[in-house]
Design a protein that fits this description.
about 260 residues, 18-stranded antiparallel sheet, single chain
């Protein structure tokens, strides 16, 4: 259950059927947890508070904004007091592109470095590289990176995952995109690096682009169990709403009973 003020979510709650029966033998719904959201006058999220089913606070997330920075601090309510747990600091380019994301954990009364993710872009401001590092022995050490390639139309053609091994990056997995005549990705094959070559694909996704607002994708295994998955992605638009009359439904499709009723 969620409530909104215009497009801003104000609160949400999860419910489940209780284990005891009442109300003429029916199981009542009980809230398991809830979250409230607070914004500043410009609509920026400032505080996110979580509660358990008894409305006792459990977690709070605080947001602070600078000109090209954003800091997110997570706290947990323990033994009647708020305790710092984690802090994530983000920096941005003047074009609003994410430049870095540093995570710190709260240990022995202070925040200490944990991980650092750095983002690089090409001349067209398309994501080119994501580098992940961990804090070890007082310095940042490489862990992995993702690299991206695009065609002349600016559509992605491949994504390669590299792992840091023996003082160098070694590619391990790749998503290889097949481009159609319009220059759009139509299929993507997920492959693994083995024996100095890209091995047989493990997954294939077929893209079907219906409009500028949404697309669908079907995933299927290329070997083994033929698992299928259908996804529909909405791009910069709310999900469409439909009137049942559009489908010409003439049969009765909903019943509420008993009717009339004197109770539930």
């Amino acid at each position: 259950l969620s409530t909104y003020d215009h497009n801003l979510i104000i609160s949400k709650a999860k419910y489940q059927l209780s284990n005891h029966k009442q109300y003429s033998g029916r199981q009542p719904w009980e809230m398991t947890d809830s979250t409230t959201y607070h914004y500043d006058s410009q609509g920026k999220l400032m505080l996110c508070e979580s509660f358990n089913g008894n409305l006792v606070p459990t977690t709070s997330i605080h947001y602070e904004y600078g000109e090209l920075e954003e800091t997110v601090t997570t706290q947990q309510f323990e033994s009647g007091t708020w305790m710092n747990k984690k802090r994530v600091s983000k920096t941005f380019l003047e074009t609003d592109l994410l430049l870095s994301e540093k995570t710190e954990n709260y240990v022995d009364g202070e925040f200490v470095n944990t991980s650092l993710v750095t983002y690089s872009y090409n001349g067209d401001n398309l994501l080119f590289n994501i580098l992940t590092q961990s804090w070890e022995d007082g310095q940042w050490s490489n862990v992995k990176q993702l690299t991206y390639e695009y065609n002349s139309c600016g559509h992605i053609t491949s994504t390669v995952l590299w792992q840091w091994q023996f003082d160098s990056f070694v590619h391990t997995n790749r998503a290889n995109y097949e481009i159609n005549e319009e220059g759009h990705p139509s299929k993507v094959y997920f492959e693994k690096w083995a024996d100095d070559a890209w091995g047989e694909g493990t997954w294939q996704s077929d893209f079907n682009i219906f409009s500028e607002s949404y697309l669908s994708r079907q995933n299927r295994a290329l070997r083994g169990t033929n698992i299928k998955r259908i996804e529909i992605h909405y791009i910069n638009t709310p999900m469409p709403s439909y009137d049942v009359n559009e489908f010409g439904l003439t049969q009765e499709f909903c019943k509420i009973f008993p009717n009339p009723a004197t109770g539930f």
